[in-house]
Here is the input.
Amino acid sequence: MTEPLLEFKAVDAHYGDFHVLKAVDYTIETGEIVCLLGGNASGKSTTMKAIMGIVRPTRGEVFYEGQTLRGVSTTERVRRGIAPVLEARRLFPRMTVYENLEMGAYTRRRGREFDEDLARVFALFPRVEERLRQLAGTLSGGEQQMVAIGRALMARPKLLCMDEPSMGLSPAYVEQVFDIIREINRQGTTIFMVEQNANMALAIADRAYVLQTGAVVLSGPSAELRQNEQIRHAYLGEMTVA
Amino acid sequence: MTEYEVLLQQTINGLSLGAMYALLALGFTLVYGILELINFAHFNVFMVASFIGMWALQLFGVSGQTRILTGAALAGVLAFAFVVTMAAAGVIGVAIERLSLRPLRGVRGTAAMITTIGVNYILFNAILLTVGAGSENYPNPLPVVRWQFGHVIVELKEVLIWVVAVVLMVALHLFVNHTRLGKAMRATAQDGEAARMMGVDVDRIIVIAFFLGSALAGAAALIFGLYYNYTSFIVGYTVGLRAFTAAVLGGIGSITGAMVGGLLIGLIETLGGQLIAVRWTDVIIFSILVLVLVVVPSGLFGRSNPQKS
Ligand SMILES: Nc1ncnc2c1ncn2[C@@H]1O[C@H](COP(=O)(O)OP(=O)(O)O)[C@@H](O)[C@H]1O
Ligand SMILES: [Mg+2]
Here is the structure.
């Protein structure tokens, strides 16, 4: 069996004295879509920051392609193929859409590969090509999310880490975003995705983890979790109402 | 001299001063844009740089306004003095960042700002104790060339100031908008954490901001010496506070704002001095500072609500 693409082994994380992640284990295999569910403030975004090296584990270790990420800079992580779609999109609002895409490719050389990646983003999001010269801050929420995903793809990632990609989007856009995520995965990118929209997320994910106040309380194949009483109660019921 | 000519003359003088204030204001704005820190050490980086420029010119035997150069010799000496002064000021800025600010990164509150006040005081005393409290006659190799339009006079040194200022501001504009590092700098200013997650080495961007801002202060310092033919340990405050006002007026953090704010403060200084009274200049300028802070704290081009993490 090949080694996992990403692995958390008993990871703890703190903000000062505040204990956020508690002995967390995740395993993400190459080619999968894995979803991380959990209520507000359960540590989902902190998980993403630990992958990117913005938050450093206080105990335990994160492995990527079999190697520890301890002491590896964020720049180097991006260079090795980990790219984020940040919570609430976080585009550079006073830069053009094109410049935002360039920032996604910051660690990579310009040239043929850059043009190929740009073409791939345009193929996924024709709207992005139309808005290229517009300031990112002037786009609608849905358009911003397209740019945010496109920006991450410009890093040509092996592992795409998405923090609540459907947050704040209208239902039509949510549907579209999940379609795109599936398409990106089909094209060969592994996806680790934080979501509150459990219904949609479990529909496209292979496996999922459930985080509660910083600890993994449930994990397994999506199909199993969808049958789980606890999940149905805590997440799915809520979502059908919303 | 008609009233119209007087105002025109003061406008020309104001543009020269304004170009200098703008260059100095850019240093406040570049650092603030990225760290949200008012770098008070910038005042005396300017002052120290004016002495470095003086020493650079003296290396060529230029002293006072007696040794006049022309042609290639003049261009060469001035280019050398600008390059040395800007580089030295840039290095001082980087040293301040590395030694006194980087260790405080991530510390909340006013610690970093207070540190810059301390560094400012150290620079001030370093010059006061080594050079002394007197005024230095600034070496100036520029021949006195003037063009007269009616009663309105344009001097060679003013043309030099405008050329230097325009070249530096265009270069900064090109760097910030059209280079990979410049774009990373803007991205960092708009959302530092997001920029980091794109792979930007934010510490490096901070160093570049300090280097550029301080180097521009170096250019302003040499311009100051050549324009007024003197420097002293106190000029960091007299000139620096006006440049700081310019940065706030334009909207601190905004590059365009610093440029426009600098020119406006220069014009307000000369035209206000003409129309009201020279001795009221400081009152006028600092009233503007207070008014802007109270009424439009984000300034002319600033963002009242920057998107920050
Ligand atoms: N930079 C920070 N400093 C201090 N506490 C933080 C910071 N970021 C997040 N937290 C706290 O850590 C907990 C987990 O946050 P987060 O990982 O963002 O949760 P989630 O994404 O699951 O909503 C929350 O209680 C939050 O308030
Ligand atoms: Mg979150």
